[in-house]
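We treat protein structure as text, and this decision shapes the records that our systems exchange. The tokens are whole numbers drawn from a learned vocabulary of local backbone shapes. One such record is reproduced below, unchanged from the form in which we store it:
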Amino acid sequence: MKETSVKQRLAAILAADATGFSRLMGDDEQSTMTALDDARAVFRTHIEAH
């Protein structure tokens, strides 16, 4: 896969994620932050294990 194609895909994912995050924050900021903190804890646990 060409590097530009990978960068374009990553940019599209980031844009979609930012849009989704903004919508979730607008709907329910507290629940969104709680879910984000929970996800970060899972990532942190797996990263520290390696």
